[in-house]
Amino acid sequence: MPKRVYLDWNATTPLRVEARDAMFAAYDLIGNPSSVHAEGREARRLVEDARATLAAAVGALPRNVVFTSAGTEANALALSPGLRGPSGRPVERLLVSAIEHASVLAGGRFPADKIGQIKVSGSGVIDLGHLKALLGDGPPALVSIMAANNETGAIQPVAEAARIVHEAGGLLHVDAIQALGKIPFDINAVGADLATFSAHKIGGPKGVGALVVAEGLAGLEPVLRGGGQEQSRRAGTENVAGIAGFGAAVKVALQALPEDAERIATLRDRLENGIRAIAGGMVFAENVQRLPNTVLFTAPGLKAETAVIGFDLEGVAVSSGSACSSGKVQPSHVLSAMGYDAAVAQGAVRLSLGWSTEPDDINRALEAWRKLGNTLLRA
């Protein structure tokens, strides 16, 4: 029986060997990282090593990295009324792009009447003109824009957005969970005041995330209160093994990024060309800069739920978009925001590649799509 082909890397990645080794080593430690004795200090060293690794990878200071239970918690921590930047004026409202992850669209701790949405183009890129108009019509705002979309892969103009936001006296949060390890990301280069990350998107363990804040940001209130862990920004004993695995994954992902990105982009382009040639396949956001690993496509009459099952039966794991809906296949809110009707939004299938994807995996995926196109769409 042929091995299965995994093309759902944007949902989660395999655990890297280096991350697994780091975690197993951490599991052998006894101490609580908040304890002052030798055993505690040994655990603390692993946490701080990982903190320094992530900080260096994204251009931050280690003291400004806050470890959380996941990217969702990191986003909830970031979206906080009262945050203050260099101007000293607290943000009073939240503006989010219409294509954000559900954990950002939920608004964090902002009340519903203080949340607005920023439009995107038909290619899935934020409308900077609309952002500017929204910022000019109210008090200082926290703006949340993802670095790259998890469904289409479209890379967002976050550096330009940061300039507009800062000129209006606001702050910018960037959900960089899909960007880390796939494209270069530096909070200083893009002008982010806050950025969020997740370990399991880069070969680390599930259940570990991080919020990184720019130097000088004030007013960040913890979501979880109790002990003084994470400089009193997130209470609760740190997940030492998970954090160690996160740090190890960051090291490997950043070292491999240039070579992996080029190789994976070549495979993605071949995959897309094959999809277009079969059953009228159409790739979304194909005319804008995208992540090198992501393909979102549909075809006339295609139903995502049926297609995902069909691919699975052919031994190929794909998804219909975000993996954060309890396993349910739902219409894509990203495509709806891009102006596509419900029939199209219900028929989108996402294939995402990773460091172990091989040319034969692309061959298998295209053969599966050829079979599906001949049966599902012509029945």
Automatic annotation (TrEMBL):
Transmembrane intervals: none
Pfam families linked to this entry: Aminotran_5 (PF00266)
Aminotransferase class V domain ranges (all copies): 5-364
Keyword annotations: Iron, Iron-sulfur, Metal-binding, Pyridoxal phosphate, Transferase
Chemical reaction(s) catalysed: (sulfur carrier)-H + L-cysteine = (sulfur carrier)-SH + L-alanine
Keyword hit for Protein biosynthesis: no
GO MF term (any one): metal ion binding
Superkingdom to which the source organism belongs: Bacteria
Protein biosynthesis listed as a keyword: no
Cofactor: pyridoxal 5'-phosphate
Family label: Belongs to the class-V pyridoxal-phosphate-dependent aminotransferase family. NifS/IscS subfamily.
Function: Catalyzes the removal of elemental sulfur atoms from cysteine to produce alanine. Seems to participate in the biosynthesis of the nitrogenase metalloclusters by providing the inorganic sulfur required for the Fe-S core formation.
The protein's name in its UniProt record: Cysteine desulfurase
Protein source organism: Bradyrhizobium cosmicum
Underlying gene: nifS
